[in-house]
Structure formats: structure tokens, C-alpha cells
């Protein structure tokens, strides 16, 4: 099942209303897609309202408004190596704030305090149940599904400042989308990042140093995860700068493509 | 003005209800304190409901439920030195998650993955208005007030892991309280931490490497701050371990005392 969050475009009696919804159809033919609205949230047993919309009549929003985003650094060995870093003995965990989240139809605003902004394609895990100290074998129970994320990073700021709140937490530094795929085995998916159609990053989730399940165990050992919280699982090799005017696209096999333009901060 | 968040204790018709309120009276004589409930939130022009409670009939909660907490490391030179660190050229910024927040009547739960938990007494700034790219001279406009914070840290985990999400983000790692003092000059306040009444940390906010205003400028350069967001401003020298059974108290001149017991995680 593909769960999106959307607003209804102008021209409909429901224009402007924001809902979760289930997307049906063939993503390769957007004109075939239909969105069935859900009542309330998508956790537990989602209830359809009976309202449906053609895909062209809705605007996709970030599929979740997470309370927190916990991210993991250097979880693909080739990416750690390309920046001159070792794979850490213990997963390297940091937060991105809710104010950094944007959806698939919004733009990355180049932050004025950096001159080296870089995208990082990542598999995002969306938590479905409040949980803490999750045992490895029960991790699947706490996951709602998966989406594409871009862990946008001001590389120069990251290298200058010892902790990464500003480098990875600026407004628009966390594009998420296009939707949450709930039926997916995350263990071996192709993941790519393109800039203006040119391939930059290409990897497979099977190259992760720690698996999705191991990361959830490690993070939830320390802190409660809430429904809607998002865990980013690291990026494969191939990172490099982007510029105002570029279009960055993160694609993950079995999910889809999250594309965002890069604009000057307004 | 002192703004608290509280629930009404058993025995009142309003038992269990949660509100913000204005605390009046002399904190040195708790029996003199009265809490005047506010309608809704304390931002903008707070409106009293007309309901008042004796202090002994309410239970103080964390004075804010922040969307995000942005913290600053090594902002007192003597504390940086005691851990063998230099004062960074650029302020070192990190996040603590909302799930780490507890109030003045809750307990710090010792996390099982650490054997060296340490309190850090800090002045907390509570944001009152949505803002970004705040100029130095306009910082006072975006501040609602100040409270005491304890930036509880698993020191062994912090030293083992390159980024501090687990070391400083575990559940209960961010006690806040007892209330928000809105009329306060933060530039030269005594700040202490005691453990079981024994003085551990003692400093003055005038020893901060970067002032409150400079920190807000620096953080808001990157990210939007929301009403209720909290900025922690660093801790003075004197950090050391605490144990289950201890009582930790953070006191700041002009605000009051935030005391929390340390318990085994349940």
C-alpha cells in the first residue's frame, strides 16, 4: 500500500484540505493514479473516507510530519571512505529537526551560510507504533513503511562544526516522499541520486553496514520512537555539490522518485 | 512573570486538567504561591481563565513541550577545558529530541546502555515567536523567557560515539523547569548544580563564550525557530557522575530550582 499526504488543488469543493490517502494505479502512468482519502491518520487500521481524487487534482506533501528524525552517518562503507572517514565502531546517530522537512513538490532553499550543499539519497523508515527497546525480531511490528529521503548537507559547515545541527538541520534540508510504501523488504533495494538527470549516487541497501532492523534496535535502546518518526539509514558513495537551479532526484526501487528543485532562499 | 504548565491534583473538580498558568507569590514560601490558569497558550497576549489554584493543589509539568531543543556545547571555557576540549571557533550545535523532556516532578531514568551519566546545569531560552535569521538587536523580541535545564549526558556514550543523539537524547535526558521567567536579563546570573545538596557546578552566565543573543542569531541563521522551541546555552565547569538514588538540582538566579531524582529505568 502507498500512503501519501496531500492537499486538494484549486477548483475542487475540497480545495486546500489536507489528508492522508492511499495511492492506487501505475506510477509509470501518473494519469492512472487515484488517491483514496483516509479519515485521520494512517496508523493502526486506516479508514477510507470514501472520497477519491485524480492524482492531477492533488498536490503531494511530505508523507509524514515527523516529531523527530533520527539519522545515521557513514552506514555505507564506500561513502565513509570517499570523505576520508572510517566506518564507525558504533553507528553514528544525529537528529534533523521537523522544521527541515519538505515534500515532493517543494524546493530545497540553498542556505546562505554555505557554499557547498550536497544531496544524500537515503532510505527512510517511517515508524508506525510508539516503541522503545525494540528487540531485533520485533522491529517489523514498529515500522509503518518506507519512503525516499534526501539528507541534504552543507558539507563545508559539517566539516567546520563538530556537531551537525546547522549543517544538516537547516530549513528544507530534509525532503521526504513521494509516499510511504508499506509492503517492502528493505534488505536489497537499488538506491540512486541524480542531479539534472545525471547519475551521481548508485548503491544497494544491501551495502548498509548496519541493517534497518539493527539501526532501530540501536536507536530505540536510548529513546522512545513515536508514530510518524523517521529514521534515515545512511547514503551510498557519490556525493557532490549542487547549485541553485538544479533538480535533485532520489529514487529507490519499489518506492519511487523524490525530485526537488534547488532555489535561492527567499 | 512566571509561566508554568501544570496538571491539577486529585480532589479538585478540575483534577487531571493540564494548563499553562501564571505563578504568583514568594517561591521561598511555597504555601504563598498561587497559580492563575491561562486560556490556551502563553504566547502573544496570554488570557487568564479566572481559575486559580493553590500551589499545593497542582503538579508542575515541563513548562513547555518544545518541538525542538537546540543545544550548544563548550560555551563555558572552563567546562571545555575540564573535558580536554578547546573552545570551538564556531558554536557547536546539536539537538535533543522532544521525547527527552521531563518536568520538575519527574525523574531521570538512568539509561541501561551507559555507566557514566552526568548532569549539566544550563540556562534554557524559550522562544516566543516563529523566527528565522534574527538580527542581533531583535533577539529580545523572539524570546518568551528563561527556565532551568539539565542537559543530562551519558558521558561514556558521548565519548564513544561521534555524534551525540543517543548520549544526550535518551528518554528523560532533558529536565526543564520549574517555570519560565519572562522578566530577566540573562547576561550575568549565578548558575549551580548540586547533587544530594553537594555543590558540583557553579558559574555565572557572564562566563558564556557566546551570549544568548549571539547563539540565537547563529542558530536562526540556519533554521526556523518555533514558539516553544528551547535553546540550551552550555554548562559551566564541574561535571561528574550521578547514580540511581541521587537528587540533582539546577538553580539559576532569578528563576528558581529544578530538582529531579535519578531512578532505574522502569
UniProtKB/TrEMBL annotation, chains A, B:
The record's EC number reads 3.7.-.-
The Fumarylacetoacetase-like C-terminal domain covers: 68-263
* Pfam family, any one: FAA_hydrolase
Q: Does the keyword GTP-binding apply?
A: no
Q: Is Nucleus among this UniProt entry's keywords?
A: no
Superkingdom classification of source: Bacteria
Q: Which GO terms describe its molecular function?
A: hydrolase activity
- What's its top-level EC category? hydrolase
**Keywords, in A-Z order:** Hydrolase, Metal-binding
Residue span(s) of domain Rv2993c-like N-terminal: 1-63
| Protein name (record) | Fumarylacetoacetate hydrolase family protein
Record organism: Kitasatospora misakiensis
